[in-house]
Amino acid sequence: MPEPILTAVATALATKAATGLYELVKRKFSGNHKATAELEAATSDDPATVQVLAERLDEVGRADPEFATALRTEFEVHQDARSGGVTNHVGSVAEGGKVVQARDVHGDISF
């Protein structure tokens, strides 16, 4: 049985509302026709299809821990966006580079 978070991820995927999450999974499943069919068949109206997708995510995540981490990270972004929060992930910034992470800025930003 997959972890509860994977069922939540599968439910978000079934609604097709989590675009980034959906695209991540679709890319991962692209070489596997059965997995792709399970992703496309999942609907929030049919809990059995969500369960099948959650089990597939569990299987693929166990085989590819990097994918499992990326899946959880993208799901957190989706959850934060749904609740009105903001999540920024900044990769490496070259020496002397500038990055601003902010919310609700009223006015100018200068470096």
Any overview of this molecule?
The chain is an all-alpha fold and 111 residues long. It has one domain. It contains five helices and no strands. α1 crosses α4 and α2 runs antiparallel to α5. It starts with a helix and ends in a 29-residue tail after the last helix.
Give me the secondary-structure topology.
Blueprint: H1 4-15, H2 19-29, H3 33-41, H4 47-63, H5 65-82
Helix pairs in contact: 1-4, 2-5, 3-4, 4-5
| Domain tally | 1
**Biggest sheet descriptor:** none
Q: Identify the overall geometry.
A: elongated
Number of helices: 5
Instruction: Report the radius of gyration as a whole number of Å.
Output: 17 Å
Q: Indicate the proportion of strand residues.
A: under 5%
Mean pLDDT: 83
Helix and strand succession?
Answer: HHHHH
End-to-end separation in angstroms reads 51 Å
Low-confidence stretches at least 5 residues in length (pLDDT < 50)? none
- According to DSSP, the number of beta strands is 0
| Assembly of the depicted chains | single chain
Percent range of helical residues: 55-70%
